Amino acid sequence: MTEPTTTSAATGPGWAQRYGAALMNTFGAPQRVLVRGEGAYVWDADGRRYLDLLGGIAVNALGHAHPAYVAAVTEQLGTLGHVSNFFATPAQVGLAEKLLALVTPGGAPAGSRVFFANSGTEANEAALKMARRHGGAARPRVLALEGAFHGRTMGALALTHKAAYREPFEPLPGGVEFVPFGDLAALEAAMGDDVAAVFLEPIQGEAGVRPLPPGYLARARELTSAAGALLVLDEIQSGMGRTGTWMAHHLPHVGGGVVPDVVTLAKGLGGGFPIGAAVALGEHAATLLGPGQHGTTFGGNPVAAAAALAVIGVIEDEGLLAHVAELGTWLREKLAGLGHARLAGVRGEGLLIAAELTEPVAAQVAAALLDAGFIVNPVRADALRLAPPLVLTTAQAQSFLDALPAALDAAGTRP
Ligand SMILES: *Cc1c(COP(=O)(O)O)cnc(C)c1O
């Protein structure tokens, strides 16, 4: 997997020290310094090539430097790069229309509206503000699931379950309660006419690629409708084709045909350019946030919108939804069939996959894979996450399957 080392300005000692001296230490030490990418591969500063099976955490839908994507972004930047939201642009309007067409099979119901943000956490902030506006003083409660990850800004953090993320920043916006994952009886018991919204990930990504059990979303829809609460689906990681359908909740065994009230998107939406969206569905959507009640300088910026339109266009033109469904099924079957003693099972849909390990050695396996030229993510101590570019080929996936057993073996011998 190693190409001849090239001399470049990026090569040489000192990156780790410079990073450590200049950047806030929120992410730990970076594993490599990456300098370029093409398709499903990236290269580090020493010229080594890696198969990128994480895709910038489910972001690089088209891989790296896809020509149609680069052309669209370049063209937009060379034409009109930014205007404030006092003005509209064709790219922004076109993207909103496109999202309304694909967020629900057959198109969004009449009255649906899009709010553009710049990231996942901001999309959820917008959704939380919609929930507050919907609920008012009569509905102070918001429900989320144990294991939920909805972002790191204060509102989205209030919806995020992990204590280590939340507790240093309390008090957080109030009213959020967590119910056990996948437990419909618990959701039913927590539900009431004082609930403004229920936030759900159809597949919990950060918790280790955990799909909601079949039937859960359909029942959650019934319960929220009966109580008059919003059903907010966070498809930030699972949406935009990652599961072989535009949205994870379009998979019949996941979504059961539900139409949520709000869908939040980011990650794969921009294919690497920062953009998020909160799509409100149905006739009351337009009233959830009114003039002056929310805003953003950059949200829906024409370059970001052009990037997202290019992502959607390439997914359509290259038939990537069918490709993801097919390759995802193949890869999950092959993983499950590897028969390695350290592999306990496989979870996920499409190209959002977790390989479950029998021991908490995911970090060591990921490190061994990185040394072998493969980027994966130890999402849990006992699970590896794969969220590769949707353009990954079968041959590339096979090269990973070929390398995995040795990395699993090596884990036991690493410190
Ligand atoms: C990544 C993620 C977020 C937060 O998105 P950012 O762009 O990192 O703010 C929210 N929800 C889910 C499900 C995510 O995977």
UniProtKB/TrEMBL annotation:
Catalysed conversion reaction: N(2)-acetyl-L-ornithine + 2-oxoglutarate = N-acetyl-L-glutamate 5-semialdehyde + L-glutamate
GO biological process, one term: L-arginine biosynthetic process
Gene3D superfamilies: Aspartate Aminotransferase, domain 1 (3.90.1150.10), Type I PLP-dependent aspartate aminotransferase-like (Major domain) (3.40.640.10)
Subcellular location: Cytoplasm
A single GO molecular function term of this UniProt record: identical protein binding
Cofactor(s) listed in the protein's UniProt record: pyridoxal 5'-phosphate
Alphabetized UniProt keyword annotations: Amino-acid biosynthesis, Aminotransferase, Arginine biosynthesis, Cytoplasm, Pyridoxal phosphate, Transferase
Chain coiled-coil ranges: none
Primary subcellular site in the record, as a coarse category: cytoplasm
Pfam family, one: Aminotran_3
Subunit and partners: Homodimer.
Protein's recorded name: Acetylornithine aminotransferase
